[in-house]
Amino acid sequence: MSRLLSRPHAPDEQGLIQKITPQSAGWQYVGFEVYQLQAGQALEQDSSSDEVCLVIVTGKADIATNEQAWTNLGERESLFERKPPFSVYVPPNDHFRVVATTDMELAVCKAPATGEYPARLIKPEDCRYEVRGEGTNQRIVCNILFDNFAAEKLLVCEVITPGGNWSSYPPHKHDRAIEHEETQLEEIYFHRVNPPQGFAVQRVYTDDRSLDETMTVENHSVVMVPEGYHPVGAPHGYDLYYLNVMAGPERNWVFNNDPQHEWIVKT
Predict the structure, then answer these.
(1) CB atoms within 10 A of CB 181
(2) Beta carbons within 10 angstroms of residue 133's beta carbon
(3) With helix as H, strand as E and coil as C, how does 171-213 read?
(4) What is the count of structural domains for the chain?
(5) Average pLDDT over residues 50-59
């Protein structure tokens, strides 16, 4: 199996099914965890030296930090309802407690930070929806923690790609820090498939092909993108959702398309 692909495991006693750390990924910035919590189950963590974005993927929960508390967060039972999620931003040197009020799935997105911004709720109406691409390149993007909210390192968004369509396409990359031209960002793709027995395909490759891997992703799979281009294809009949988490030296998303496929944009 590719070192870039993490398949889910059965929930442990905390409900954890996926865990990516900078150490396990071999990079510097992005950490990522997914929990499946049963109604009444609680999850508690110190944010330590990280800023954290808690995304209620499905279900409902009460969430509290050291100074803030919110109840009955969450609206959607399916990722494919095309409703934005409720999320909570937690600064470093804080503590969060999540109590599931229904069965739920929670994504915990992390990146190193110093504490410039306070804990706050990100409501569905705070998220920015947009449709990108045309024809079989069309997908629906929801910016959760992007240009709609300030943070130190984290960039978080969701994408729904209809069956038969491509996403992150034409292939693009963001692995060099060149002012006004490209930013260096590590990236996580957390995949969900509808119906859940389906699959999708993701390729990660560099210009010199020193990295060139094509992976079959299934429900709850995670793909790590340390560098290179990273297009995704959803087969006919299976809609694809993914949660993107990015972080790097600069919190700015500036990318370059693969020059061999730039003609697709121009036409």
Answers:
(1) 10
(2) 18
(3) CEECEEEECCCEEECEEEEEEEEECCCCEEEEEEECCCCCCEE
(4) 1
(5) 98
Amino acid at 141: V
Q: Is the dihedral of CA 24, 25, 30, 32 positive or negative?
A: negative
pTM, two decimal places: 0.97
Calculate the alpha carbon distances from 65 to 109, 115, 116, 231, 243 in Å. Answer: 16, 14, 16, 37, 23
Residues 6+ apart with CB under 8 A from 161: 139, 167, 200, 232, 234, 239, 240, 241, 242
Cα angle for residues 51, 55, 60 (degrees, 5° grid): 135
- Pick from 155, 164, 166: nearest CA to 254: 155
Domain that holds residue 35: 5-266
Q: Which CATH number is 173's domain given?
A: 2.60.120.10
pLDDT in tens, 31-45: 999 999 999 999 999
Whether the pLDDT of residue 52 is over 90: the answer is: yes
Phi-psi region of 5 (alpha: psi -120 to 50; beta: other; left: phi over 0): beta
What does the DSSP 8-state code read for residue 84?
P
Peptide bond into 195 cis (omega under 30): yes
Using one digit for the tens of pLDDT, what is the confidence trace for 82-102?
899 999 999 999 999 999 999
Q: Is the pLDDT of residue 267 over 80?
A: no
pLDDT value for 142: 96
Note the residue count of the chain: 267
